[in-house]
Amino acid sequence: MNKDLAPRPPLPQAVALYDRACPLCRTEMHRLKARDRHGRLRLVDIAAPDFDPAQWGFELDALRNALHVRGRDGQWRIGVPGIAEAYRAVGLGWLTWPLRVPGAGRAAARAYRWIAPNRHRVSRWLGYREAGAEPAPRCDDGHCPTHF
Fold this sequence. Notes:
This protein has 148 residues and is of the alpha+beta class. The chain contains five helices and four strands.
């Protein structure tokens, strides 16, 4: 087969820079990835020892304080818009409709600005386990278990 005509893997529609060390973040991103039937969401763990934030053009503190998602259009969406972009990428954008209700998007952004820097505490309050408490599934290779 001519290698110019060989099928190429689909490009991800979105790249999410997320904190796998955060139980809530890890669980929610991996749940999304598990529903990603077409490989449109790529997860990049900012807590990985070999992660280099400069490669992405951000400071690590900024990445730790908000989810950063780059859409297929190359634009970065940060915080709540990033969450919505990740949902759209896996075909679940319709679930973000409440963010379009007047005032709801602003309220969600306000809540997110408090939750993001307190995500480990919020994870404990919600009953999510720390990464060392039990093995967490890896989804970065494009394969993710359905249940967590």
